[in-house]
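thread: overnight batch results

M.L. [08:02]
morning all. the overnight job finished for the chain we discussed friday. pasting input first so we're all looking at the same thing
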Amino acid sequence: MRITVLAGGVGGARFALGLRDAAPDAAITVVANVGDDMWLAGVKVCPDLDSLMYALAGVVDGDRGWGRAGESERVAGELTAYGVGWPWFTLGDLDLGTHLARTALLREGRTLTEATAQLAARWPLGVTLLPVTDDEVPTHVVTDEGVIHFEEWWVRTRAQLPAQRFVQHGAERARISHAARAAIADADVVLIAPSNPVVSIGTILGLPGVRDALETAAAPVVGVAPIIGGRALRGMAATCLAVIGVEADAAAVAAHYGARSQGGILDGWLLAEEDEAGLAGLRSLGIRAEARPLLLTPGEPAAQVAREALALAAAIAG
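M.L. [08:03]
and the structure it wrote out:
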């Protein structure tokens, strides 16, 4: 079985780990958001790709859910002393090694897809990790105080600075990568991870070619709700949803994505048992929705969520 997952960072990583456990014999491809990417202190930082790679490699900092375990920050201290970079966005020493390696590969003329493949080859990930595009599409946040990079809004202000809208700079000129398009076209199942619907999955969907690839895919497309009982599984998705006028509700997120039969992206949707009141409305929209336990607790619970998603996809496929 060939499974392709569209994912952001931390939530996507937890789901990918569960999926790898649930389908050990499947060929899994994770297509990652690159809207959080930035150049910082001269190096290319890809937060979502790195969170996915570190988690799948088993070297992630389990307490934070991102970054490397056993990290040190001596270089970051030196950068701060020189007045370089963002002092509130710490690059760990081990993490900086990843960014330096990626930057060297890019400056040699490799695409981000090629650079990611070389970095990932170091680890036994059990999946193929791809950026959704080789183009740069950094997410900016338009605020009352000006336009700032998404990571500054997210990390420095903790999303407390009121946002007017999110803008993926350069998205109109970007294109889905050939590898990401092929991963969607060749899949037996396409899954939408429970990642931020606005700045992770939303950024992926906003890239030219992605919606077309999903529309023409032969595989069923099944999403997993990132909202349980009105609360985001990770991060500040509720704040992001409010910016685009979508309720922080599992059914509302599915309706925002839309039914594939009606020009959206979803054939199926898993929401939590706490949110089963939304099932009837989603089914009326043409989305085959089911309620299941959705907490991505590492180990068997996360694997069971992945199994439920695969089972729903199998039922849709007939």
